[in-house]
Amino acid sequence: MSRAGLDAFWLGLVLTTFGAPLGHAFDLVGNSWPSGPIPLRLQLDATRPASPALPLVDTSTSWNAVAAAALNEWNPHLTRVQFISSESTVTAAAFGNRVNNVLFSTTVYGDSFDDRTLAITLSSTAFRKTEADVLVNTTKSWNSYRGAGRAAIDLRRVLIHEFGHVLGLDHPDQAIPAQAVAAVMNSTIGNLDTLAADDRAGAAALYGTAIARPVITTQPTSATVNVTGTARLSVAVNDSATVLGSILYDYTWYFAPTGAATFEPLFTINNSTRLDFNLAQLGDAGRYFFSASTPDETVNSHTVTLTVNPVAVSPSTQLVNVATRGVAGTGANAMIVGFSISGSKRKQVLLRAVGPGLAVFNVPGRLADPILTLKSAERTDLAANDNWEQQTTTSAANITAITARVGAFALAPGSRDAVILTTLNPGNYTALVSSPNNSTGVIILEAYDTDSPLDPALKLANLASRGFVGTGADVIIAGFLVSGPGPKTFLIRAIGPTLLNAPFNLAGALRDPYLKIFRGDTLLRELDDWDSPASAQASLRAAANRVGAFGLREVRGTFPSTGLDAVMLITLPPGNYTAQMSGLDDGTGIGLIEVYEMPD
Asked: What is the Cα–Cα distance from 28 to 168, expressed in whole angstroms?
């Protein structure tokens, strides 16, 4: 997930001429300037190309005058801001100096322009804009004129486009979904040399009226809850408990854990007037406040305290059944499920790879003929099955009886689902799903503890599932049953970026996983990055060490060290749960979801 700051949006115009499409749907970057003047330093004459000679085709006597004319296209349509400009003979410029530089350049501050890019706007990513630089590609042939395009490119219309980026407008033809509009702000240059109705509408959405000042009319109140209980912190802004549907308002909750002095933003819960703790955890305890921002100001709520009382976990509670639903592919996209058996004796487990059997649940895209293979930690094949009724060490009748005893849904006679019933020594195992013709499809891969009664000294301890994370119904879902007299703590991890590096080296790994925990249809917890809050990282590292999990990649800077994988240390009461792994903003790729039972 991106963080606000001086990171730059790179927005530019490319060289392709086309007929303007029709429609109306401007697109916004997501941030804007404070009300007042937007000062630009015009350095075009100081950095001008060697040709052409002045005056230009439209009689402009300087390149800075062309820029001033482009600014004046926007100003009549801006209410709470106005562009102002000053000319400079300085050739130096840099992003991050809080100066809005406009200049010709052969590079984008050291990075090369591609062959088709005419100009680039680098803009701060902060909600409240602080800087935007416009760099015009000197290697192109330039002039200034009106009407149809010529061999030389019209700087004026290019700068009109780039100054739209400075304001915070994006390319409507590259929006999701793409918009068919007549607009200067489209990503390619055409014959349009002035603002269209869509451009003016975009400017009005950001700057057409004064911004109403946010006032926190209902303050949050402190709360006390037990671990696994529910609590809510909430506010009202301008007498409303709903989020204002405007990019001019930004709502953020801040958190400082118990004993800490520093607050940090909770990015996963951004833009909400309430914090719901549907399954409170010890890590939630601390102080909170709410912040409402506009481009002009920020107002904060009172600081309140959430107290979370611990509860005793039960050593007799354990994972009983684990299952993973996802897309079984081929090669690196194959569905692979790992599990562990703890204790000192052998344990019988029932393993099922169900594709055709999902028809009773109306699951589309099912894998027609799964083959299930069980391997040891040393990658030795231990057992395999293609069709569940074709067994060598047991009978279909026994499979049916045990299936009913462990509470699994029945498989239809003649279905091509795969089942292995086996007794295993304590250790680590891997189950893989393939198909006879390398086809792909949705499957559910299950592992059941067949002991009756359950033996807490001999149990399924961990689940790890690797597969392709798609969108919609094709995300990876890990289901597990927690059984016993009381709560139990688990480490749950949704891993993508770490898989990019050795020893995994999976180039197609999911770049930014998002993790959700459900009980039935109720969302209990959700998390984007394991560094939010950063205060939890030390305990997450320690938990991973305790269960023997590999360390996660920490990629986003040196202070603090951060990573994009998603991790929760969570105490759960007995019940059925699902952990859903998706990609942020519908990202896709290979992902690994893990469920570890924490030792008592």
From this structure: 6
| Other beta carbons less than 10 A from residue 594's beta carbon | 24
With beta carbons less than 8 A apart as the criterion, state whether 313 and 293 touch: no
> Residue 417: which of 360, 352, 465 has the closest Cα?
352
pLDDT digits (tens, 9 = 90+) for 73-92: 999 999 999 999 999 999 99
Residue with tokens 């200034």: 144
Residue 11 · residue 119 · CB < 8 Å: no
- From CA 325, how far away is CA 363, in angstroms rounded? 11
pTM exceeding 0.90:
no
Share of the chain above pLDDT 90, in %: 61
Strand residues in 425-547 grouped as ranges (E): 427-434, 441-449, 459-469, 476-483, 488-495, 513-519, 522-527
- Per the listing, tokens 């033809």 go with 173
**Cα–Cα distance for residue pair 2/8, rounded to 1 Å:** 11
How many whole angstroms separate alpha carbon 447 and alpha carbon 437? 25
Q: Which two tokens stand for residue 562?
A: 């951060």
Least confident of 120-124, 130-134, 305-309, 500-504: 500-504
- As a whole number, the mean pLDDT across the chain is 88
List the beta bridge partners of residue 434: 371
Q: Give the tokens for residue 137.
A: 């590609």
Question: What percentage of residues in the chain have a pLDDT greater than 70?
Answer: 91
Q: How many helical (H) and strand (E) elements, i.e. helices and strands, does the chain have?
A: 5, 36
Mean pLDDT of 197-220: 94
- Measured CA to CA, the distance from residue 540 to residue 546 in angstroms comes to 10
77-103 burial, b for 16+ CB within 10 Å, e for fewer?
bbebbbbebeebeeeebebeeebbbbb
What are 4's two structure tokens?
């606000």
Contact, 528 vs 268, CB < 8 A?
yes
Query: CB-side exposure of 223: number of CA atoms within 13 Å?
Result: 20
Looking at residue 162, its pLDDT comes to: 94
What is the average pLDDT across 319-346? Answer: 84
Provide mean pLDDT across the span 390-399: 92
For residues 27-53, give the mean pLDDT. Answer: 91
**Where do the domains of the chain lie, and which CATH numbers do they carry?**
8-207 (3.40.390.10), 216-309 (2.60.40.10), 318-482+507-527+575-595 (2.60.120.380)
Contact 322, 460 (CB under 8 A): yes
Q: Tokens standing for 219?
A: 């303050």
Please tell me the distance from the alpha carbon of residue 468 to that of residue 589, in angstroms, as a whole number.
Answer: 6
Checking if the pLDDT of 451 tops 90, the result is no
Q: Following DSSP, what letter does each residue of 415-448 receive, concatenated? A: ---EEEEEEE-SEEEEEEEE-TT---EEEEEEEE
Q: Helix, strand, or coil here: 260?
A: coil
Report, as an integer, the average pLDDT of 335-341: 87
Residue 101's beta-bridge partner residues?
A: 41
| C-alpha–C-alpha distance, residues 354 and 87, integer Å | 70
pLDDT value for 235: 96
- CA angle 403/405/409 to nearest 5° reads 40
Is the pLDDT at 268 greater than 80? The verdict is no
Burial class (CB in 10 A: 0-12, 13-18, 19+), 73: buried
Count of other CB atoms within 10 angstroms of residue 156: 23
